[in-house]
Each structure stands twice: as structure tokens, then as C-alpha cells.
Design a protein that fits this description.
Layout lengths: L1 E5 L4 H12 L3 E5 L10 E4 L13 E4 L12 H24 L6 E7 L10 E2 L9 H14 L7 E7 L1 E3 L6 H9 L2 E2 L8 E2 L1 E3 H13 L5 E5 L5 E2 H9 L6 E2 L4 H8 L1 H7 L4 E2 L2 H5 L9 H9 L3
Parallel strand pairs: 1-2, 1-4, 2-3, 4-5, 5-7, 6-15, 7-12, 8-11, 9-14
Antiparallel strand pairs: 10-13
Helix pairs in contact: 1-5, 2-3, 7-8
């Protein structure tokens, strides 16, 4: 297939590009970076560089500034919104300009869509609780859904916390453990819905291939864990000398809304859509995932 990919130079995107090319696909990457084309991979800095007669079979939209990159000032909230909603909008607009519209549009979202839900198990039909991250995800998904006017099959990928070596959330999460300090945040009972990056890539390829699948899909491992349980799992892989939880008040002073929405509350999310469709996770449990990431064979 000829695949247009936004966010192709990010943590998920780089791994996806490698897999797509090795599978024989042609990839066009929308990126603000100045990079040289190579082999089956072409880079564009603006969608206007894509001619109307360019064949594109699928669009995979992964673009978005990091939600945990910094405190959510008014300015950074605008950047978060623009990097998701406006990028998605331009991709949908491209579909109207192409002589032949793509067949499928896979668009990233996040389990932040649901907002905090304490211990409630959430599938794709779970309700949303109003907060910044939830409102952002709803606007993001609404832009993607608007592509249905061009006849595209649309899948919304609600990512959990993606774990792997060399980047992603685990870089920050493992830092205290590497220094001998085991920790969790706040009370430690908040849920962490995580997923191994290898399963993320496999799920994206699965959704690309399955023409019968559309709508929202939670891309999280089947077994969520609490923050305390994550700490216990990490201690099996790092030599720690003290367990020192980070008080909620400290997290709020350091990170403001980021702490309340992303770190001190959570969602217990189950990938019901993928499971029902027959997708098999390579890493359904945290211990096996961390063993692969921390101690690769």
C-alpha cells in the first residue's frame, strides 16, 4: 500500500515506519524536520507538496505534541490542541483534493478520552468525564470522524501509556529505580493502562488490514495495573534500596493539571474491540513486557 503517515518521526512512528517498509509498503511521512528520502520512504514538510494524482491507500495520523512534555500553560494547551486537531483537519482536507480518496484513515487518540473513572473498567463504550485531556481527545476524534464524508473507513486508536526501551514514558518512569529508589505517585491506587510498543505496532497493522473494523479501539494491554503494582513489577528488574512514594501535593506543585489528570488519576481500560476482533497481544501482562524491555535477550 501507499501510506501517508503523520508523526512518523516520533516514538511510535519510527517503529511503525520500519515495520511498514519491511512489509513492502511505500510510506510518505509528513514531518516538520528536514530529512532525506530513502528507499520506500519519502518526506514532505507540507501536504501541499502532495499532488492531486498521488495514489494514497491509507492515512495513519500519529501527530501530536507530548501531553506530559511540560506544565499545561494556556499557550501549551493551544499547542497541544493545534498539533492534534488542526493536523487531523488538514489530513481530512487532503482527502477532498486527491483524485482518488484513500480507503482507510487510522487516527490516534488516547485513553484520556474517558477522563478519571476511579476503578471502573472501561471499554470503548465507556463514558467521558469532562476535563482538558478528555475534551481535547473528543475534539481530536471529531475531526477524524469527519473524514467519513469522503467514504473512508475510520478507526480511532485510543492509546494507553506506551512502554519500550529508548524513549517514551518509561524513560521518566524508570529514572528513580535506576538510582535505587522505588516509587509511586500519590496514593498509588490509581490505574495505569499500559501497552508494549510492539503490540501498538501490531495493532496498527491489524487495523490497516481488517477492512471490517471501524470506530474506536482501545490500544492497551488487557491487564491494567495500579501505580503500586507497577512499582512492585519494576523492583524485580532494578536493585532498589528504598521505597519513597511521591506525595500528591508535590506532584501538583511541580506539574499542576498534568499531575491531576495524567499521574494522580487514571483509567482502567480494557481493549474490548481488538479482543473481540481476534487480535492477540504478545505482551498481555506487565512482567513479561518489562522483562523484554529491561532485559532483552
Amino acid at each position: 500500500m501507499n501510506i501517508l503517515l503523520s508523526g512518523g518521526t516520533g516514538f511510535i512512528g519510527t517503529a511503525l515506519v520500519e515495520q511498514l517498509i519491511s512489509s513492502g509498503h511505500q510510506v510518505i511521512i509528513l514531518s516538520r524536520q528536514t530529512l532525506s528520502d530513502h528507499g520506500s520512504c519519502r518526506y514532505v514538510g507540507d501536504l501541499d507538496e502532495i499532488p492531486a494524482d498521488q495514489p494514497i491507500d491509507a492515512i495513519v495520523n500519529l501527530a501530536g505534541a507530548s501531553m506530559a512534555g511540560k506544565r499545561w500553560s494556556v499557550q501549551y494547551k493551544q499547542e497541544l490542541l493545534a498539533s492534534r486537531v488542526e493536523t487531523t483537519r488538514t489530513l481530512v482536507q487532503l482527502c477532498s483534493r486527491l483524485e482518488q480518496a484513500p480507503h482507510v484513515f487510522l487516527s490516534a487518540s488516547a485513553i484520556g478520552f474517558y477522563g478519571p473513572h476511579a476503578d471502573e473498567v472501561l471499554d470503548e463504550n465507556g463514558s467521558s468525564t469532562s476535563c482538558f485531556s478528555s475534551d481535547l481527545c473528543q475534539q481530536w476524534e471529531a475531526e477524524a470522524i469527519s473524514a467519513n464524508k469522503h467514504g473512508l473507513r475510520i478507526a480511532l486508536m485510543r492509546f494507553g501509556v506506551v512502554l519500550d526501551r529508548e524513549g517514551g514514558a518509561l524513560d521518566d518512569m524508570k529514572r528513580p529505580f535506576k538510582m535505587g529508589v522505588a516509587n509511586w505517585m500519590g496514593g498509588g491506587e490509581q490505574w495505569l493502562s499500559w501497552v508494549h510498543r510492539a503490540d501498538v505496532i501490531a495493532a496498527i497493522l491489524f487495523l490497516l488490514d481488517r477492512q471490517d473494523l471501524s470506530g474506536p479501539f482501545n490500544i492497551t494491554a488487557p491487564e491494567s495495573v495500579t501505580s503500586r503494582s507497577f512499582c512492585a513489577a519494576m523492583k524485580k528488574h532494578y536493585r532498589t534500596f528504598v521505597t519513597l512514594p511521591v506525595p500528591a501535593i508535590v506532584m501538583r506543585l511541580l506539574l499542576g493539571e498534568v499531575a491531576d489528570e495524567l499521574l494522580l488519576s487514571g483509567q482502567r481500560v480494557f481493549p474490548a474491540g481488538l479482543t473481540a476482533a481476534g487480535f492477540k497481544f504478545s505482551y498481555p501482562a506487565l512482567d513479561a513486557a518489562l522483562e523484554d524491555i529491561v532485559n532483552p535477550g
